[in-house]
Amino acid sequence: MTRKTYKIAAIGGDGIGVEVVDACLVVLDVLADRDGGFALNVTNFDWSTDRYKRTGEFMPADGADQLRSFDAILFGAVGAPDVPDHLTLWGLRLAICQPLDQYANVRPTRVLPGIQSPLRHVNAGELDWVIVRENSEGEYAGQGGRSHPGLPLEVATDVSIFTRAGIERIMRFAFKLAQSRPRKLLTVVTKSNAQRHGMVLWDQIAAEVAQDFTDVTWDKMLVDAMTVRMTMKPASLDTIVATNLHADILSDLAAALSGSIGVAPTANLNPERDTPSMFEPIHGSAFDITGKGVANPVATFWTAAMMLEHLGETPAAERLMQAVEAVTADPALHTPDLGGNATTRMVTDAVVESLRGRN
Ligand code: ATP
Ligand code: MG
């Protein structure tokens, strides 16, 4: 059997981002070794807020281009308490996602074994959603501006951009994903009662695209009502598609409902595979726990499983998730965000042991 080698760019970033990516690389090494079917050629990049403080740039001007030759990007988190969040977001994350056209942000949510959802009526295995977030335009298009600084007539505008092409491609992606899942259910989220241009176009295009997916059952929800449905009737949902802003908010709620933001993964996909996709935990750099060795690495492990799946290494992805679930099932291996006393190292070692124990 030929041993495939994948080129992986690892960008730990800031705070616990570095800690969880380091832990993840340990696990990936063992997995590749164990599996034998593939190898990973990892290049580490120091792109971060630290680099910005030293050089004035989060990454080199041609950073996104440097990433083009990789098969996938593993990303930690970016941000530091003393640098404004909008600088870090636009300086690194979006500076990668946008040029590489990673327009589909996919965020699975599931209550893993051994983890307690804050929703008392939800058990492990239930609450099985995938949120698809439009990742290239909408409210985060970066359009708008400020004028008359400091004067009473100071104005600031944030202009949302919705294009037919942008909506259609994310809608098609979401319907296809819904179709591939057992329940074939899709909920299209908007705020089309109040936002009467872009959001109405979303509803319209959803209905158009639905014609090509007659086996998918779909419905529409307003984003405010959606938060209620997610908490009160979680089992009624499966695949969800929403705009950049709405899905950003809903997926934080989803992460919390699955037990902790420390277990929630995400993939920034270029579904056509013209450019590499980027895989990261949902959580940020979390400076309150940085350096304490207690960051939960589970989100990043799950993220790595999504990466392997995307690379076509499905058996390895499944093996990794089995190992992760075997570990979450044991409360002695829960980090403090899950109410336990375990460390990043303990969780990582346990996943490695579980992987080694298999076969
Ligand atoms: P950002 O500004 O990028 O969102 P942040 O520092 O605000 O980053 P969040 O990801 O929003 O961090 O997380 C909020 C809090 O949740 C953190 O301050 C931390 O206490 C906790 N947290 C986040 N991720 C983890 C993790 N992997 N393990 C344990 N606790 C976490
Ligand atoms: Mg935060």
What would you say this structure looks like, in words?
The protein has 359 residues and is α/β, with parallel strands linked by helices. The protein folds into 2 domains: 1-103 and 271-359, 3-Layer(aba) Sandwich (Isopropylmalate Dehydrogenase), CATH 3.40.718; 117-142 and 153-258, 3-Layer(aba) Sandwich (Isopropylmalate Dehydrogenase). It is 39% helix and 22% strand. It has 11 helices and 12 strands. The strands form 2 sheets. A 10-stranded mixed sheet has the order 2-1-3-12-11-4-5-10-8-9, with helices on both faces. The model has no long low-confidence stretch (mean pLDDT 94). It binds adenosine-5'-triphosphate and magnesium ion (MG). The site of adenosine-5'-triphosphate (ATP) has 18 residues, from loops.
Layout of helices and strands:
Elements: E1 4-13, H1 16-35, E2 38-45, H2 49-55, H3 63-67, E3 72-77, H4 85-97, E4 104-109, E5 129-134, E6 138-147, E7 155-161, H5 164-180, E8 185-190, H6 198-210, E9 217-222, H7 223-232, E10 239-242, H8 244-257, E11 265-269, E12 277-281, H9 298-310, H10 314-328, H11 344-357
Parallel strand pairs: 1-2, 1-3, 3-12, 5-10, 8-9, 8-10
Antiparallel strand pairs: 4-5, 4-11, 6-7, 11-12
Helix pairs in contact: 1-9, 1-11, 5-6, 7-8, 9-10, 10-11
Bound molecules: adenosine-5'-triphosphate (ATP) and magnesium ion (MG).
EC number: 1.1.1.83, 1.1.1.93, 4.1.1.73
Catalytic activity: (2R,3R)-tartrate + H(+) = (R)-glycerate + CO2; (2R,3R)-tartrate + NAD(+) = 2-hydroxy-3-oxosuccinate + NADH + H(+); tartrate + NAD(+) = 2-hydroxy-3-oxosuccinate + NADH + H(+); (R)-malate + NAD(+) = pyruvate + CO2 + NADH
Family: Belongs to the isocitrate and isopropylmalate dehydrogenases family.
